[in-house]
Design a protein that fits this description.
With 98 residues, this protein is mainly alpha-helical. It contains 5 helices and no strands. The chain is flat and about 55 Å long.
Length: 98
């Protein structure tokens, strides 16, 4: 996505974006350090379903299903799908699509 600004405004805009990314990385590191990430054990069946969800997303990238629809398709509850996806692929479903 090209920067919509020029000159000093462009510099401030880009610095803001850089600070936003840095804040996300720091927050993630703090979360890991404090052990707040879900450490649930994922069964082979759950892992298979999460990978199946990823393939559904890839097949429907231009019009992806909602998380609720995706969870229903792979027969997982939304929490297990979201937390398992993040644990497996180190990103959220939304960020993966983005």
């Amino acid at each position: 996505m090209p920067c919509p600004h020029q000159g000093i405004t462009k510099r401030i805009y880009l610095e803001g974006k850089a600070l936003d990314l840095i804040s996300l990385l720091i927050a993630q590191e703090i979360e890991i350090y404090q052990g707040q990430r879900s450490l649930m054990n994922l069964t082979d069946s759950t892992l298979d379903r999460i990978h199946y969800a990823k393939s559904i997303l890839l097949q429907n990238i231009s019009n992806p299903p909602t998380i609720a629809e995706l969870a229903k398709q792979v027969k997982l509850n939304e929490y297990t799908l979201k937390s398992g996806f993040r644990r497996c692929f180190n990103t959220t479903i939304f960020r993966y699509l983005y």
